[in-house]
Amino acid sequence: MAPFTKSPLNKVGILTFKQTLLLLTVMGVTLPSYSESFTVKRAGQGFTGLAQDFTSSLSNPALLTTFDNDDDIFFSLNIGSIASDKYNVIDTTEDISDNLDTLANDINGIQNFQSLEQAKNYYDDLNLQVDNIIADFENIDEKIVKLRNGLNLQILIPNKYLSFGLFTNQYGRIGGTMDYSEGDEKILNDAILSAELDLSELESATITVGYSIAEAGFMAAYPAVKHANYDVSVGAKLKYQRIDLYYNRVKINDFEDNDFEITNEENITDKSGTNVDLGLYINWGDERQWHAALVTNNLMKQVVHHIEQDITFTLVNNTSLGLSYQNSWVSLATEIDLTDREKLSSLEASKYAGVGAEFRFYEHIQFRLGYRTDLNDIDDDIYTAGIGISPWDAFAFDIAAFTGDNDTIGAALQLSLKI
Hints:
With about 425 residues, this protein is α+β, with helices and mostly antiparallel strands. The chain has helices at about 10-25, 40-45, 90-110, 115-140, 185-195; strands spanning about 75-85, 145-155, 165-180, 205-225, 230-250, 270-285, 290-295, 300-305, 310-315, 320-325, 330-335, 345, 350-360, 365-375, 380-390, 395-405, 410-419.
Protein backbone atom coordinates (compact mmCIF):
# COMPACT_ATOMS: atom_id res chain seq x y z
CA MET A 1 0.00 0.00 0.00
CA ALA A 2 1.33 3.42 -0.87
CA PRO A 3 2.47 5.69 2.02
CA PHE A 4 -0.35 8.09 1.20
CA THR A 5 -2.91 5.63 2.56
CA LYS A 6 -1.45 6.02 6.06
CA SER A 7 -3.05 9.44 6.59
CA PRO A 8 -5.90 9.25 9.15
CA LEU A 9 -8.63 10.62 6.88
CA ASN A 10 -7.62 8.42 3.96
CA LYS A 11 -7.75 5.36 6.26
CA VAL A 12 -11.32 6.31 7.15
CA GLY A 13 -12.16 6.86 3.49
CA ILE A 14 -10.72 3.51 2.41
CA LEU A 15 -12.48 1.78 5.33
CA THR A 16 -15.78 3.37 4.29
CA PHE A 17 -15.14 2.26 0.71
CA LYS A 18 -14.38 -1.32 1.83
CA GLN A 19 -17.45 -1.53 4.06
CA THR A 20 -19.64 -0.21 1.28
CA LEU A 21 -18.27 -2.79 -1.12
CA LEU A 22 -18.97 -5.55 1.39
CA LEU A 23 -22.53 -4.26 1.75
CA LEU A 24 -23.04 -3.70 -1.97
CA THR A 25 -21.41 -6.71 -3.58
CA VAL A 26 -23.98 -6.27 -6.35
CA MET A 27 -22.46 -3.42 -8.24
CA GLY A 28 -22.40 -2.18 -11.81
CA VAL A 29 -20.53 -0.27 -14.43
CA THR A 30 -22.37 3.04 -14.85
CA LEU A 31 -19.88 5.17 -12.96
CA PRO A 32 -19.58 8.74 -14.22
CA SER A 33 -18.08 10.61 -11.31
CA TYR A 34 -18.54 13.88 -9.50
CA SER A 35 -14.93 14.98 -9.15
CA GLU A 36 -15.36 17.62 -6.51
CA SER A 37 -15.39 18.05 -2.76
CA PHE A 38 -18.46 16.59 -1.08
CA THR A 39 -19.12 19.57 1.24
CA VAL A 40 -22.52 19.77 2.91
CA LYS A 41 -23.16 23.49 2.43
CA ARG A 42 -22.46 23.07 -1.28
CA ALA A 43 -24.49 19.87 -1.57
CA GLY A 44 -27.54 21.32 0.18
CA GLN A 45 -27.70 24.09 -2.44
CA GLY A 46 -27.85 21.83 -5.47
CA PHE A 47 -24.08 21.26 -5.43
CA THR A 48 -23.35 24.94 -6.08
CA GLY A 49 -20.55 26.64 -4.18
CA LEU A 50 -17.86 27.91 -6.51
CA ALA A 51 -18.89 31.51 -5.90
CA GLN A 52 -19.92 31.38 -2.21
CA ASP A 53 -17.60 32.22 0.72
CA PHE A 54 -14.23 31.12 2.06
CA THR A 55 -15.70 28.10 3.89
CA SER A 56 -16.19 26.58 0.41
CA SER A 57 -12.52 26.94 -0.53
CA LEU A 58 -12.20 23.20 -1.09
CA SER A 59 -14.43 23.72 -4.15
CA ASN A 60 -12.67 26.89 -5.30
CA PRO A 61 -9.33 27.82 -3.70
CA ALA A 62 -9.72 31.45 -4.82
CA LEU A 63 -12.49 31.80 -2.21
CA LEU A 64 -9.81 31.79 0.50
CA THR A 65 -9.65 35.58 0.15
CA THR A 66 -13.36 36.12 1.04
CA PHE A 67 -12.94 35.90 4.82
CA ASP A 68 -14.14 38.40 7.43
CA ASN A 69 -11.61 40.38 9.44
CA ASP A 70 -12.34 38.37 12.60
CA ASP A 71 -11.77 35.00 10.89
CA ASP A 72 -8.41 33.48 11.78
CA ILE A 73 -8.80 29.70 11.40
CA PHE A 74 -11.59 27.57 9.93
CA PHE A 75 -11.83 23.82 10.37
CA SER A 76 -14.45 21.53 8.80
CA LEU A 77 -15.12 17.81 8.48
CA ASN A 78 -17.61 16.47 5.91
CA ILE A 79 -19.01 13.03 5.22
CA GLY A 80 -21.82 11.99 2.89
CA SER A 81 -23.15 9.43 0.43
CA ILE A 82 -25.78 9.03 -2.30
CA ALA A 83 -27.26 5.68 -3.33
CA SER A 84 -29.72 4.41 -5.91
CA ASP A 85 -31.31 0.94 -5.86
CA LYS A 86 -34.59 1.29 -7.73
CA TYR A 87 -35.13 -2.45 -8.21
CA ASN A 88 -34.13 -3.58 -4.68
CA VAL A 89 -31.17 -5.47 -6.10
CA ILE A 90 -29.31 -5.64 -2.78
CA ASP A 91 -32.17 -7.09 -0.73
CA THR A 92 -33.22 -9.44 -3.52
CA THR A 93 -29.70 -10.78 -3.94
CA GLU A 94 -29.47 -11.47 -0.22
CA ASP A 95 -32.84 -13.28 -0.42
CA ILE A 96 -31.61 -15.38 -3.36
CA SER A 97 -28.47 -16.35 -1.46
CA ASP A 98 -30.48 -17.34 1.63
CA ASN A 99 -33.08 -19.22 -0.42
CA LEU A 100 -30.37 -21.17 -2.27
CA ASP A 101 -28.92 -22.29 1.06
CA THR A 102 -32.38 -23.43 2.16
CA LEU A 103 -32.94 -25.25 -1.13
CA ALA A 104 -29.58 -27.01 -0.89
CA ASN A 105 -30.32 -28.16 2.66
CA ASP A 106 -33.74 -29.47 1.61
CA ILE A 107 -32.39 -31.30 -1.45
CA ASN A 108 -29.28 -32.75 0.19
CA GLY A 109 -31.04 -33.82 3.37
CA ILE A 110 -32.00 -37.48 3.76
CA GLN A 111 -35.75 -37.93 3.19
CA ASN A 112 -37.86 -40.77 4.53
CA PHE A 113 -41.31 -40.49 2.98
CA GLN A 114 -44.21 -42.14 4.77
CA SER A 115 -46.61 -41.82 1.83
CA LEU A 116 -46.83 -40.83 -1.81
CA GLU A 117 -48.66 -37.66 -0.79
CA GLN A 118 -45.78 -36.65 1.47
CA ALA A 119 -43.30 -37.22 -1.37
CA LYS A 120 -45.46 -35.21 -3.77
CA ASN A 121 -45.65 -32.29 -1.32
CA TYR A 122 -41.88 -32.45 -0.85
CA TYR A 123 -41.13 -32.23 -4.58
CA ASP A 124 -43.83 -29.58 -5.14
CA ASP A 125 -42.18 -27.46 -2.47
CA LEU A 126 -38.73 -27.86 -4.07
CA ASN A 127 -40.09 -26.88 -7.51
CA LEU A 128 -41.81 -23.87 -5.98
CA GLN A 129 -38.54 -22.81 -4.32
CA VAL A 130 -36.73 -23.07 -7.65
CA ASP A 131 -39.46 -21.06 -9.41
CA ASN A 132 -39.20 -18.30 -6.79
CA ILE A 133 -35.40 -18.20 -6.97
CA ILE A 134 -35.41 -17.99 -10.79
CA ALA A 135 -38.10 -15.30 -10.70
CA ASP A 136 -35.93 -13.24 -8.35
CA PHE A 137 -32.91 -13.73 -10.61
CA GLU A 138 -34.86 -12.54 -13.64
CA ASN A 139 -36.30 -9.54 -11.78
CA ILE A 140 -32.86 -8.11 -11.00
CA ASP A 141 -30.86 -9.39 -13.97
CA GLU A 142 -28.70 -6.50 -15.28
CA LYS A 143 -30.44 -4.00 -12.99
CA ILE A 144 -28.10 -1.31 -11.70
CA VAL A 145 -27.14 -0.27 -8.17
CA LYS A 146 -25.11 2.92 -7.68
CA LEU A 147 -23.47 4.54 -4.68
CA ARG A 148 -21.21 7.55 -4.28
CA ASN A 149 -19.40 8.58 -1.11
CA GLY A 150 -17.33 11.53 0.01
CA LEU A 151 -15.18 12.44 3.01
CA ASN A 152 -12.96 15.46 3.52
CA LEU A 153 -11.17 17.61 6.05
CA GLN A 154 -9.95 21.17 5.56
CA ILE A 155 -8.08 23.66 7.74
CA LEU A 156 -8.10 27.23 6.39
CA ILE A 157 -5.90 30.08 7.62
CA PRO A 158 -6.94 33.31 5.85
CA ASN A 159 -4.96 36.55 5.99
CA LYS A 160 -4.67 39.71 3.93
CA TYR A 161 -1.38 38.73 2.29
CA LEU A 162 -1.68 35.09 1.23
CA SER A 163 -4.53 32.97 2.50
CA PHE A 164 -3.77 29.26 2.62
CA GLY A 165 -5.12 25.96 3.82
CA LEU A 166 -4.46 22.24 4.19
CA PHE A 167 -6.89 19.56 3.09
CA THR A 168 -7.39 15.87 2.59
CA ASN A 169 -10.23 14.58 0.48
CA GLN A 170 -11.60 11.16 -0.48
CA TYR A 171 -14.44 10.50 -2.89
CA GLY A 172 -15.51 7.53 -4.90
CA ARG A 173 -18.24 5.71 -6.68
CA ILE A 174 -19.20 2.07 -6.94
CA GLY A 175 -21.93 0.42 -8.88
CA GLY A 176 -23.01 -3.00 -9.95
CA THR A 177 -25.37 -5.50 -11.41
CA MET A 178 -26.49 -9.13 -11.22
CA ASP A 179 -25.24 -11.29 -14.09
CA TYR A 180 -27.84 -14.10 -14.22
CA SER A 181 -26.90 -17.29 -16.06
CA GLU A 182 -29.96 -18.98 -17.57
CA GLY A 183 -28.24 -22.36 -17.27
CA ASP A 184 -28.66 -22.18 -13.50
CA GLU A 185 -32.35 -23.04 -13.82
CA LYS A 186 -31.47 -26.41 -15.37
CA ILE A 187 -28.84 -27.05 -12.66
CA LEU A 188 -31.44 -26.49 -9.93
CA ASN A 189 -34.10 -28.61 -11.62
CA ASP A 190 -31.62 -31.43 -12.25
CA ALA A 191 -30.55 -31.29 -8.62
CA ILE A 192 -34.13 -32.04 -7.52
CA LEU A 193 -34.13 -35.20 -9.63
CA SER A 194 -30.66 -36.33 -8.52
CA ALA A 195 -31.22 -35.34 -4.85
CA GLU A 196 -27.87 -33.52 -4.83
CA LEU A 197 -27.21 -29.81 -5.20
CA ASP A 198 -23.72 -28.29 -5.34
CA LEU A 199 -24.17 -24.49 -5.22
CA SER A 200 -20.63 -23.95 -6.54
CA GLU A 201 -21.85 -25.16 -9.95
CA LEU A 202 -24.09 -22.11 -10.34
CA GLU A 203 -22.71 -19.48 -12.72
CA SER A 204 -24.83 -16.44 -11.79
CA ALA A 205 -22.68 -13.77 -10.17
CA THR A 206 -22.60 -10.21 -8.93
CA ILE A 207 -20.23 -7.83 -10.71
CA THR A 208 -18.71 -4.89 -8.88
CA VAL A 209 -16.86 -1.96 -10.43
CA GLY A 210 -15.76 1.07 -8.47
CA TYR A 211 -13.08 3.60 -7.77
CA SER A 212 -11.83 5.68 -4.88
CA ILE A 213 -9.84 8.89 -5.26
CA ALA A 214 -7.91 10.06 -2.21
CA GLU A 215 -5.92 13.26 -2.19
CA ALA A 216 -4.13 15.55 0.24
CA GLY A 217 -2.49 18.86 -0.31
CA PHE A 218 -2.04 22.59 0.10
CA MET A 219 -4.13 25.45 -1.25
CA ALA A 220 -3.52 29.17 -1.40
CA ALA A 221 -5.14 32.32 -2.78
CA TYR A 222 -4.07 35.86 -3.53
CA PRO A 223 -6.21 39.02 -4.00
CA ALA A 224 -4.91 39.93 -7.45
CA VAL A 225 -7.01 43.07 -8.01
CA LYS A 226 -8.61 45.46 -5.51
CA HIS A 227 -10.72 48.00 -7.40
CA ALA A 228 -13.39 50.44 -6.35
CA ASN A 229 -15.96 48.57 -8.44
CA TYR A 230 -14.73 44.96 -8.32
CA ASP A 231 -12.25 42.54 -6.77
CA VAL A 232 -10.42 39.62 -8.40
CA SER A 233 -8.77 36.71 -6.61
CA VAL A 234 -6.81 33.73 -7.89
CA GLY A 235 -6.15 30.46 -6.12
CA ALA A 236 -4.61 27.04 -6.59
CA LYS A 237 -4.50 23.62 -4.99
CA LEU A 238 -1.43 21.41 -5.20
CA LYS A 239 -2.28 17.85 -4.23
CA TYR A 240 -0.95 14.33 -4.08
CA GLN A 241 -3.53 11.97 -5.49
CA ARG A 242 -4.13 8.23 -5.42
CA ILE A 243 -6.73 6.51 -7.61
CA ASP A 244 -7.88 2.97 -6.77
CA LEU A 245 -9.80 1.14 -9.51
CA TYR A 246 -11.74 -1.89 -8.28
CA TYR A 247 -13.33 -4.86 -10.03
CA ASN A 248 -14.76 -8.02 -8.52
CA ARG A 249 -16.98 -10.86 -9.70
CA VAL A 250 -18.55 -12.93 -6.93
CA LYS A 251 -20.55 -16.07 -7.72
CA ILE A 252 -23.90 -16.18 -6.01
CA ASN A 253 -22.93 -19.02 -3.67
CA ASP A 254 -20.13 -16.81 -2.25
CA PHE A 255 -22.25 -13.67 -1.97
CA GLU A 256 -22.35 -13.65 1.84
CA ASP A 257 -18.74 -14.74 2.25
CA ASN A 258 -16.95 -11.83 3.90
CA ASP A 259 -13.56 -13.44 3.39
CA PHE A 260 -12.97 -11.85 -0.04
CA GLU A 261 -10.43 -9.05 0.21
CA ILE A 262 -10.85 -5.82 -1.73
CA THR A 263 -7.11 -5.19 -1.80
CA ASN A 264 -6.23 -8.45 -3.54
CA GLU A 265 -4.06 -7.70 -6.56
CA GLU A 266 -6.56 -9.28 -8.93
CA ASN A 267 -9.32 -6.99 -7.61
CA ILE A 268 -7.72 -3.56 -7.40
CA THR A 269 -5.34 -1.42 -9.42
CA ASP A 270 -3.98 1.92 -8.23
CA LYS A 271 -2.03 4.87 -9.54
CA SER A 272 -0.56 7.83 -7.65
CA GLY A 273 0.78 11.22 -8.63
CA THR A 274 0.53 14.97 -8.18
CA ASN A 275 -2.17 17.21 -9.61
CA VAL A 276 -3.28 20.82 -9.63
CA ASP A 277 -6.61 22.69 -9.40
CA LEU A 278 -6.95 26.38 -10.33
CA GLY A 279 -9.62 28.87 -9.30
CA LEU A 280 -10.67 32.40 -10.25
CA TYR A 281 -13.12 34.52 -8.25
CA ILE A 282 -14.62 37.94 -9.05
CA ASN A 283 -17.13 39.99 -7.07
CA TRP A 284 -18.66 43.36 -7.93
CA GLY A 285 -21.53 45.73 -7.19
CA ASP A 286 -22.07 48.53 -4.71
CA GLU A 287 -22.23 46.02 -1.86
CA ARG A 288 -20.22 43.34 -3.63
CA GLN A 289 -23.44 41.38 -4.01
CA TRP A 290 -22.56 39.77 -7.37
CA HIS A 291 -20.09 36.93 -7.59
CA ALA A 292 -18.58 34.80 -10.37
CA ALA A 293 -16.07 31.96 -10.38
CA LEU A 294 -14.22 29.75 -12.81
CA VAL A 295 -12.55 26.56 -11.61
CA THR A 296 -10.47 23.96 -13.44
CA ASN A 297 -9.79 20.69 -11.61
CA ASN A 298 -7.07 18.12 -12.28
CA LEU A 299 -4.85 19.80 -14.84
CA MET A 300 -2.87 16.59 -15.24
CA LYS A 301 -4.74 13.74 -16.88
CA GLN A 302 -4.61 10.43 -15.00
CA VAL A 303 -5.39 7.05 -16.57
CA VAL A 304 -5.72 3.83 -14.55
CA HIS A 305 -6.01 0.54 -16.44
CA HIS A 306 -7.17 -2.71 -14.83
CA ILE A 307 -5.22 -5.10 -17.06
CA GLU A 308 -6.96 -8.34 -16.04
CA GLN A 309 -10.44 -6.98 -16.81
CA ASP A 310 -9.47 -4.42 -19.47
CA ILE A 311 -11.21 -1.60 -17.57
CA THR A 312 -9.92 1.96 -17.84
CA PHE A 313 -10.68 4.91 -15.60
CA THR A 314 -9.76 8.33 -16.94
CA LEU A 315 -9.46 11.40 -14.73
CA VAL A 316 -9.48 14.43 -17.01
CA ASN A 317 -9.37 18.13 -16.30
CA ASN A 318 -12.80 19.73 -16.19
CA THR A 319 -13.87 23.36 -15.95
CA SER A 320 -16.95 24.77 -14.21
CA LEU A 321 -18.51 28.22 -14.05
CA GLY A 322 -20.36 29.55 -11.02
CA LEU A 323 -22.50 32.67 -10.46
CA SER A 324 -24.21 33.93 -7.32
CA TYR A 325 -26.08 36.83 -5.79
CA GLN A 326 -25.70 37.40 -2.05
CA ASN A 327 -27.07 39.80 0.50
CA SER A 328 -27.58 39.69 4.25
CA TRP A 329 -30.42 37.15 4.21
CA VAL A 330 -30.24 35.16 0.97
CA SER A 331 -27.79 33.63 -1.49
CA LEU A 332 -28.87 32.52 -4.96
CA ALA A 333 -26.41 30.49 -7.01
CA THR A 334 -26.08 28.58 -10.25
CA GLU A 335 -23.28 26.40 -11.54
CA ILE A 336 -22.59 24.63 -14.82
CA ASP A 337 -19.86 22.37 -16.15
CA LEU A 338 -18.26 23.75 -19.28
CA THR A 339 -16.56 20.43 -20.04
CA ASP A 340 -17.31 16.76 -19.38
CA ARG A 341 -16.08 15.07 -16.22
CA GLU A 342 -14.04 11.89 -15.87
CA LYS A 343 -15.34 8.54 -17.02
CA LEU A 344 -14.92 4.80 -16.69
CA SER A 345 -14.00 2.77 -19.80
CA SER A 346 -16.26 3.48 -22.80
CA LEU A 347 -19.14 4.96 -20.79
CA GLU A 348 -20.16 8.53 -21.42
CA ALA A 349 -19.04 11.17 -18.93
CA SER A 350 -21.34 13.38 -16.89
CA LYS A 351 -21.79 17.13 -17.25
CA TYR A 352 -23.69 18.86 -14.45
CA ALA A 353 -25.75 22.01 -14.02
CA GLY A 354 -27.26 23.08 -10.72
CA VAL A 355 -29.14 25.88 -8.99
CA GLY A 356 -29.47 26.55 -5.29
CA ALA A 357 -30.45 28.99 -2.59
CA GLU A 358 -29.60 29.64 1.04
CA PHE A 359 -31.91 31.60 3.34
CA ARG A 360 -30.47 32.97 6.59
CA PHE A 361 -32.55 33.55 9.71
CA TYR A 362 -31.46 35.31 12.91
CA GLU A 363 -27.86 35.25 11.61
CA HIS A 364 -27.25 31.74 12.94
CA ILE A 365 -29.74 29.52 11.08
CA GLN A 366 -29.51 28.66 7.39
CA PHE A 367 -31.99 26.79 5.22
CA ARG A 368 -30.88 25.51 1.80
CA LEU A 369 -32.60 24.17 -1.32
CA GLY A 370 -31.29 23.09 -4.69
CA TYR A 371 -31.57 21.04 -7.85
CA ARG A 372 -28.92 19.39 -10.04
CA THR A 373 -29.25 17.77 -13.46
CA ASP A 374 -26.85 15.92 -15.74
CA LEU A 375 -26.75 17.61 -19.12
CA ASN A 376 -25.51 14.35 -20.68
CA ASP A 377 -28.38 12.32 -19.16
CA ILE A 378 -26.00 9.88 -17.46
CA ASP A 379 -26.64 10.57 -13.78
CA ASP A 380 -30.04 10.96 -12.18
CA ASP A 381 -31.53 14.39 -11.48
CA ILE A 382 -31.57 15.14 -7.76
CA TYR A 383 -33.28 17.61 -5.42
CA THR A 384 -31.38 18.77 -2.37
CA ALA A 385 -32.23 20.40 0.96
CA GLY A 386 -30.21 21.30 3.99
CA ILE A 387 -30.12 23.17 7.25
CA GLY A 388 -27.27 24.79 9.16
CA ILE A 389 -26.96 25.98 12.73
CA SER A 390 -24.02 28.23 13.60
CA PRO A 391 -24.30 29.72 17.10
CA TRP A 392 -22.12 32.81 17.63
CA ASP A 393 -20.65 32.19 14.16
CA ALA A 394 -18.11 29.91 15.82
CA PHE A 395 -19.30 26.31 15.83
CA ALA A 396 -21.50 25.06 12.98
CA PHE A 397 -23.53 21.92 12.36
CA ASP A 398 -24.82 21.36 8.81
CA ILE A 399 -26.82 18.52 7.33
CA ALA A 400 -28.12 17.92 3.81
CA ALA A 401 -30.44 15.37 2.24
CA PHE A 402 -30.94 14.35 -1.41
CA THR A 403 -33.63 12.60 -3.37
CA GLY A 404 -34.16 12.02 -7.06
CA ASP A 405 -34.94 9.73 -9.96
CA ASN A 406 -34.62 5.94 -9.70
CA ASP A 407 -35.12 5.99 -5.92
CA THR A 408 -31.95 7.98 -5.40
CA ILE A 409 -31.46 9.01 -1.77
CA GLY A 410 -28.58 10.42 0.21
CA ALA A 411 -27.41 12.49 3.16
CA ALA A 412 -24.35 14.42 4.27
CA LEU A 413 -23.07 15.87 7.54
CA GLN A 414 -20.61 18.67 8.26
CA LEU A 415 -19.02 19.80 11.51
CA SER A 416 -17.04 23.01 11.48
CA LEU A 417 -15.28 25.41 13.82
CA LYS A 418 -14.35 29.01 13.15
CA ILE A 419 -11.85 30.85 15.35
